[in-house]
Each structure stands twice: as C-alpha cells, then as structure tokens.
Amino acid sequence: MWKLRGYLKPYWKASLLAPLCMLLEVYMDLLQPKLMASIINNGVLTRNLQHIQSTGLAMIGIALVGLLGGIGCTIYSSIASQCFGTDLRRDLFSKVQSFSFRNLDHIPAGSLITRLTNDIVQLQNMVQMTLRTLIRSPFLAIGSLIMAVTISPKLAVVLAVVLPVLFLVLYLLIRFAFPLFSKVQNKLDQVNTVLQENLTGIRVVKAFVRARFENKRFDTANNDYTAIALKASRVVAINMPIMMLILNLSIVAVLWFGGHQVWESSLPVGDLVAFINYVTQVLMSFSMVGMILMNVSRAKVSADRVNEVMSTESEIKDRPHASEAAISQGRVTFDQVSFRYPSQQDLALRDISFTAEPGQTVAILGATGSGKSTLVNLIPRLYDTTKGHIRIDGTDVRDMALQHLRTCIGMVLQESFLFTGSIRDNIRFGKPEATDEEVEAVAKAAQAHDFIMKMPDGYNTRLGQRGINLSGGQKQRLSIARALLVRPAILILDDSTSAVDLGTESRIQQALRELMRTSTCFLIAQRISSVLDADKILVIDEGRIVAEGTHAELYRHSAVYQDIYRSQLGKEEVAHG
Questions:
Q1: Among the four residues 14, 47, 427, 521, which has the most C-beta atoms within 10 Å?
Q2: Given CA atoms 398, 404, 405, 406 in this order, what sign does their dihedral have?
Q3: What is the pLDDT of residues 82-140, one digit of tens each?
Q4: What residue ranges define each of the domains in the chain, with the CATH number in brackets?
Q5: DSSP labels for 365-413?
Q6: Do the beta carbons of residue 262 and residue 269 sit within 8 Å?
Q7: Prediction pTM value
Q8: From the centroid of its chain, how far is CA 368?
Q9: pLDDT digits over 26-61, tens only?
Q10: What is the tally of helices (H) and strands (E) in the chain?
C-alpha cells in the first residue's frame, strides 16, 4: 500500500486538514467526561444548580465544536479518498491499455474488472478510514488512558490487565482473517469472469439452449465466493462480541474496585463515572482499531493486486530512439519468423519468409488453426516474434515507435467489435477529426452507406453495446470503413467479409483496389473465390508456408492449393486447369 501513497500527494491539503479536524473532535470528546464529573461532584451532590447549568452549557458548546471538527474531517477525508481512487483508477486503466496481448492472456479480463472496481473501492475506503477512524481511535484511546490514570492510578491497573488481552485477541483475528481476504478477491475474480463470458456470449447461450448450464456454472462460482466471504465475515464478526465482553468485564471490575474507593471517600462519585467513560472510550477505540486493521488487511490484498497490474511491464514497448517516420511505402518482409504462444510448447509459426511489395494484395489461405491470424498479428506487434525479423520498408518493426507503426496499419480483426455510440463515431474511431465527407466516402467503399441511410438517424444512429442492433455483415462493413478511414500504408483484413454475400464482397474488393491502390493489403479469407485476384497467395499449413504464388501458379503446381480449390469449387475446374 505504501507504493500508492503518491496518489495522495496532490491532495495533501485535504489529507492534512482531515486528521487535524479529527484531532479537534477527539480533544472535545476527551473534555466531556471531566465536565460530567464536575457536574456530579460540584453540582448534583452539592445541589448547585448554577454550576450544573454553566457546565452543561459548556458541554453543549464543546460538543458543537467537536461536531464541526467531525464534519470537517468527513468532508476533507472524502475529498482525499475519492480523488485518490479516481486518479488510481485512471492510471490503472491507462496501464491496461499499454498491455500486450501476452499480458492480457496472463491476467484475465474478469480479474482486471475486479481490480478496476472492487479493489479500488477497497483502497478508497481504506484511505478515508485512515484519515478518520485510524486517527480518531488511537488518539482517543491514548488520551482517554492518560485521563483515566490522572483520575485514579489504582483503578488504571484494570486497564493494564485488559489491554494485553485485547491486543492478543486483535493479533489472532488479523492473522486468521488476512489469508481469507485474498481468497475472497480471487473468488470474486471468478464470478466476474463467468459473468463477463455469459453476457458477452448470451446469444450463443440462447442459441444452444444452455441457460441451465450457465446458471449452474454461475451458481458454482457465486456459491464459492459466498462461502469464503461468509468465512471471512465470521472471523470479522467475532471481533465485536469479544470486545463487548472485555468492555463489560472491565466496567464490572472498575465498579467493583472503584465502589470501594468511593465508600472509603478516596474517590469522588463523579470521578468514578468519568473513569468509566474513559475506560469505555479506551476499549471501544481499541475495538475500532481492530475493525480498522481488518479493513487494512483487506485493503492490503487489494493493493497487492493493483500493484501487480501497475508493476506489469509489457514486453512490447518502444526501444530507445525508436523511429517515428520509418514507414513510407509499406513494403513488408518476413525473414525466418517463428512464434510460440506463452501457454504452448509447439511453435505456432515456423520459419516464415516472404515479401509483400507496396500496392500488392497478399492473400493468406489455410485450415483453421494453421496460423493465419497469428501471422498478421505480428505485423503491428500485437505479439513479438520468438525468432526472426519483420521489416517494413527495411526497418525492423521492433525499432519503430508503436504509435507510428500502428497508425500506419489499418486492421479489421476476425471479430467485428463496435462501441456504444453513433455509427459516425465508430467509423471515426481511428481518426476523430475526419470530416463527414471522408466518413461517407469510406462507408461507400465498404458498401455500408446504403444500409446506414436506411436507419432511423442515418450516420447519427446510436449503436448498442458491441453493435447489438446490427447484423454480422453490417458490423463487418463498418469495421472495414473504420480501417479505411485512416488511409493506412498497410491494410490487414482478417476474414473480414465472411458474413457478407459474394456480390457485396466483390464490390468491396473492387472499391479497395481503387481506394487503396498504393497500400499493401493482407487478406485472410475462408472462401477461395475471395483471393483469386490477389497478387500473391500464401498457403499455410501447421505454421509453415507450404505454397506461394499467384492463383494461376498455385493452380498448376500446388497439390495443397488444388485440394482447397477442389473442396470449394469442384473437381471439374481442377481437372480442366
């Protein structure tokens, strides 16, 4: 938690004023039992009404001053804690944005959501509690202890016996509770992961009538979380009954021994009442310290989880003196490139070598899982190569500034992801300053303009989460338009027309040839008809390039290509090739 203290520095004034206001309240609270003793000793027992009235008014005035201190502490501690949480959440979110795909594979999305929400809230509460209760309780306990000793050193022996017992109880409770809090947060991660997967894939769940299965899966995660949360809560709940037992036993002991002193006239009745008040404040303060330490233990778990994200460094980052103007034409060269996913033993790509010239369309064919998407993901450094080099215009992509590299690459991924907002904003996602004319031009090229104009508000039509109110083909066309708008030197289309009909796909490809005439285009497609006009076709099998050439060349010489062609377009055309 100490590593996060820097987030309070910008709000040092509020962080300082909060405990100062609390100290004012504590001081006022410490005066009350003394004044009460004075009322009893010098007012009630002597029947001095004037003293009762004047001292009572003084108690009211002191209480009001303490109230102002408490309100001030609440206001300033809230400002400091909420601003602390806001800044931490912002930086944590920004850190996640810098992660590579490898980092995101290591920390699941459900866990990141928990850390950005629940864990940050735990830390906010801890900061606020520290500035309020963690200041109030120790100072009130110490002050009350001093005041009790000044009233009766003999009776203070009761506290000398009770406090070690209290400390032992607190130590044992914290020791048992701390490991449980870590398990609670991990179980909450699992709940969020199941919830996210279910909400993301709700259509698949409904299509396969798997609601009952998903309910059971969620119940399992939810019940596991509930069980460990209840176990942790039981440990925390034990604190208060034990504290109240110790408090009541202490008061009985004080009344027993203090009563004898009153009978012997060595201790005034009012002082005994004040002593009991101070003992109550001491023990209740230590009880609150125990509750605070429980929350601090829980907050430490959250802090460790947040620090894990903050300390995670992406292996994909700019090298010193990375080039910010290396890409001019878009020539892409793969030189003996191999790649392995962290979770796998086998290479996903093996010794891939080829060159894509500026203006060329390079099509990539292969069976599912052959490594097509992996290959194109290496170009914008979504992953880094395990071996070999990828060069663009002669410069290794690892020697380029990431922003420059990715700005020059337009990418349409397999999953067409759209954001909540207008159609216009989704198309302008990569170029917010684009004019309406530019947006309409790329929409027409992507064959999206017509269906957009048929929608209620045209380009201003609001899309639901993930483009829920569009068909698969419509989402793909908007994704293509979004990529075209940045006019990239390199365009990557990862099976991006699988949900559109052949006629629409043909028109999109014709528009791409006209609009992106000087750009290098990588086209992954399942339909062989989509790649017939490509300048170069790469056939990949089990991570290797097994054939390379134009359609005519592969048609004549590649058995693998012929098998793919035959399976889709029929034996007759191959036989007469």
A1: 427
A2: positive
A3: 999 999 999 999 888 888 878 887 887 778 888 888 889 989 988 988 888 878 888 88
A4: 2-311 (1.20.1560.10), 325-408+489-505+516-577 (3.40.50.300), 416-487 (3.40.50.300)
A5: EE-TTSSHHHHHHTTTTSS--SEEEEEETTEEGGGB-HHHHHHTEEEE-
A6: yes
A7: 0.72
A8: 32
A9: 999 999 888 888 888 888 888 888 888 999 999 999
A10: 20, 12
